[in-house]
Amino acid sequence: MKSITIKGSKRESVGKVATKALRNADKVPCVLYGGENPLHFSANELDFSKLIYTPNAHTVILDINGDQKINATLQDIQFHPVSDKVLHVDFFQLSDDKEVNMEIPVIIEGSAPGVMLEGGTLVNSKRKLKVRALPKNLPDFINVDISSLELGDKISIVDLESENFTILHPDNTVVCKVRTSRASMIIEEEGEALEGEAAEEGAEAPADGESSSGEE
To answer: What is the mean pLDDT of the chain?
Structure first.
């Protein structure tokens, strides 16, 4: 998995006054967990754009004070409710022998016959999946091949099993499916309605040789 480097500086003070001063200087207070003790540091807010505003998954190399590099993953991020400024970020330190949880993007591959030939609509229910794996086995993305999906078919978690990682969703969770499009449903419903009306008219019409009033 690709990594993004974020340069940080250790924080000498973690009080409210120091935190406010950091934010006023466009820096983000951060905490790294997973080591012997939590590590408090700060980083430039602009450095987080390439990590946050992307559909891709990345691990992080934290470059602390230029002399300490730590592999980590993004665990939690807090935004200002109005301005969307980054207020706080939590990281978790990676260890080669310890599994970690991470959200991985889903990549759809192929063309579904149910869409191309039968007029169905592809519904992508899960754009990211949470997985657990050793750091070396974390995938950049999860491929989902839809080239065999007919109308009404679906792909669930149970269909995406891997030896390298565990997907942390129930086996019956639907990742994507091909359903009848709304336009097709409307046409079908209109066709059924017309057939019903024709059947009713046929039932009400008098038989040959009979008058509509029933008189001879």
So the answer is: 86
